[in-house]
Design goal:
Blueprint (H helix, E strand, L loop, with lengths): L5 E7 L2 H13 L12 E4 L2 E10 L3 H13 L5
Antiparallel strand pairs: 1-3, 2-3
Length: about 80
Amino acid sequence: MNTPAFSVVRTVRTAVEADMLITFMRSAGLHPLDLVTSSHISLAGADISFHIEVPTDELSQAREFLGSQDDSPHPA
Protein backbone atom coordinates (compact mmCIF):
# COMPACT_ATOMS: atom_id res chain seq x y z
CA MET A 1 0.00 0.00 0.00
CA ASN A 2 1.58 3.22 -1.14
CA THR A 3 0.42 6.62 0.01
CA PRO A 4 1.85 9.98 -1.06
CA ALA A 5 3.78 10.22 2.20
CA PHE A 6 4.94 6.58 2.59
CA SER A 7 5.90 3.79 0.21
CA VAL A 8 6.44 0.06 0.69
CA VAL A 9 10.10 -0.81 0.27
CA ARG A 10 9.92 -4.51 1.19
CA THR A 11 7.39 -7.12 2.26
CA VAL A 12 8.48 -9.89 4.67
CA ARG A 13 6.78 -12.94 6.15
CA THR A 14 7.32 -12.52 9.88
CA ALA A 15 7.07 -9.75 12.44
CA VAL A 16 10.53 -10.69 13.72
CA GLU A 17 12.08 -10.17 10.29
CA ALA A 18 10.19 -6.89 9.91
CA ASP A 19 11.40 -5.65 13.31
CA MET A 20 15.01 -6.55 12.46
CA LEU A 21 14.86 -4.71 9.12
CA ILE A 22 13.28 -1.68 10.75
CA THR A 23 16.05 -1.62 13.36
CA PHE A 24 18.81 -1.95 10.71
CA MET A 25 17.23 0.76 8.59
CA ARG A 26 16.98 3.14 11.55
CA SER A 27 20.63 2.52 12.40
CA ALA A 28 21.43 3.63 8.81
CA GLY A 29 19.55 6.90 9.32
CA LEU A 30 16.33 5.91 7.55
CA HIS A 31 12.87 6.46 9.02
CA PRO A 32 10.66 3.38 8.47
CA LEU A 33 7.21 3.29 10.05
CA ASP A 34 6.81 1.31 13.25
CA LEU A 35 5.50 -2.18 12.56
CA VAL A 36 2.22 -1.49 14.37
CA THR A 37 1.64 1.53 12.11
CA SER A 38 2.49 -0.10 8.79
CA SER A 39 0.09 -2.28 6.84
CA HIS A 40 -0.09 -6.06 7.14
CA ILE A 41 -1.60 -8.70 4.91
CA SER A 42 -3.93 -11.02 6.79
CA LEU A 43 -5.67 -14.27 5.92
CA ALA A 44 -8.40 -15.62 8.19
CA GLY A 45 -7.34 -13.22 10.93
CA ALA A 46 -3.67 -14.24 10.91
CA ASP A 47 -0.93 -11.88 9.70
CA ILE A 48 0.89 -13.56 6.82
CA SER A 49 3.13 -10.74 5.67
CA PHE A 50 4.30 -7.34 6.81
CA HIS A 51 5.08 -4.25 4.74
CA ILE A 52 8.14 -2.19 5.54
CA GLU A 53 7.20 1.40 4.70
CA VAL A 54 9.44 4.46 4.48
CA PRO A 55 8.80 8.10 3.67
CA THR A 56 8.48 8.31 -0.11
CA ASP A 57 11.42 10.70 -0.34
CA GLU A 58 13.65 7.99 1.26
CA LEU A 59 12.46 5.18 -1.02
CA SER A 60 15.49 5.04 -3.33
CA GLN A 61 17.91 5.31 -0.41
CA ALA A 62 16.06 2.51 1.42
CA ARG A 63 16.12 0.27 -1.67
CA GLU A 64 19.84 0.89 -2.06
CA PHE A 65 20.47 0.11 1.62
CA LEU A 66 18.42 -3.10 1.53
CA GLY A 67 20.05 -4.13 -1.75
CA SER A 68 23.49 -3.73 -0.25
CA GLN A 69 22.42 -5.90 2.68
CA ASP A 70 21.14 -8.60 0.31
CA ASP A 71 24.46 -8.60 -1.59
CA SER A 72 26.71 -8.72 1.47
CA PRO A 73 28.34 -12.03 2.39
CA HIS A 74 26.76 -13.83 5.31
CA PRO A 75 28.73 -16.00 7.74
CA ALA A 76 28.31 -19.71 7.17
